[in-house]
Amino acid sequence: MNYLNFSTKAASRQERSAQWQMITRAPSAELGDDREASIRGCDLGELRLASVAMGEHRLENDRAVLADPENGLVKFLFLEEGECLVEQSGRSVSLFAGQWCAIDKTLPFRTEARGATRQLAIAIPKRRLEELRGAPRHFAMVECFLNGAGNVLHESAASAINAATVLGRRDRARLGDVLVEMLNMVWQADPQISGARTHRARRRAVLDFIERNLADPNLSISWISEALGYSKRTLHKLFAEEATTLNRLIWNRRLDHCRHALLDPSQSRRSITEIAHAWGFSDSQHFSRAFKMRFGTSPRDFRNGNLVH
To answer: How much is the pLDDT for 131?
Structure first.
């Protein structure tokens, strides 16, 4: 594959699944809804990039791709939208938007999603990874790519897919080598084993959890504490340097989303109460007071353009 741009076109899910399996060479592919699945990809030397959009699906590789693990591929999966389950070697992890993990393609694995997802995948030969140290520490282990080195790698790889269309073979290979170097930097700079317990990583885990569950009216410090295994005291300490409390941070993020929705022309037919409820507010009067306190105007005046300056 030098460059690939493909979308499923068929009358039935079974036919689309067969098309997907043929074009991606997946041992098993099952598309579970009527959404069109698409893939754009390219080869940059030994590195392969792919941008994939799919609806509900289940992909399974029940056999090793290559018998030789040194020349087999490692797949780095960056989830840009949606939620995806990844299973390999007895491990099962849920991948949410903004997170990535690595999959050893020389071993059986399964990925599954119950809704629409968008993902970016990077595949390279295992031997191009500079540090393995026995059991691969990142395989089926979740990392965040919303900031730091992971963000640089993701953004660079996403841009490279478009850039590859105007590059010659030699320049594509050079670009691939650059991305391999960046990938190795990320691989070594942010290991899950040592980084998961740091203040910064814990704080990011809390923020990621809040964003994923912001629309749920039951989101609370107690729920976050139970879900992530952090004590309430630890949660408060993580955000002690903030100018606001963790509860206020949750309210502010909800208000920010409501503000964007009120400005969105595509949501003009939704009532203010519907928008407030969609982002976790159960009391419309409380929402109006909180909105005015944060933005200096009522939700209705804000939507109508009567802003306070």
So the answer is: 57
Q: How far apart are CA 236 and CA 5, in angstroms?
A: 48
309 is written with which tokens? 């300056």
Best CA proximity match to 61, nearest among 93, 94, 28:
28
Mean pLDDT in runs of 10 for the chain (309 residues)?
86 92 90 92 95 93 59 88 85 80 89 91 88 48 76 92 90 95 79 50 80 90 81 85 83 92 88 94 92 92 71
* Cβ atoms of residues 185 and 149 within 8 Å: yes
- pTM greater than the 0.90 cutoff: no
In three-state secondary structure terms, 280 is coil
pLDDT given for residue 64 in this prediction: 56
Cβ atoms within 10 Å of 288's Cβ, excluding its own: 17
Helices (H), 229-279: 232-238, 246-263, 272-278
* CATH H-level, domain 199-304: superfamily: Homeodomain-like (1.10.10.60)
Q: How many residues does the chain have?
A: 309
* Domain 3-195 CATH (choose: 2.60.120.10, 1.20.1250.20, 3.30.559.30, 2.60.40.770): 2.60.120.10
Residue by residue, what is the 3-state secondary structure of 182-205?
HHHHHHHHCCHHHHCCCHHHHHHH
Token look-up 């408060």 returns 236
User: Residues 254, 279: contact at Cβ < 8 Å?
Assistant: yes
Q: Fill in the amino acid letter for 94.
A: S
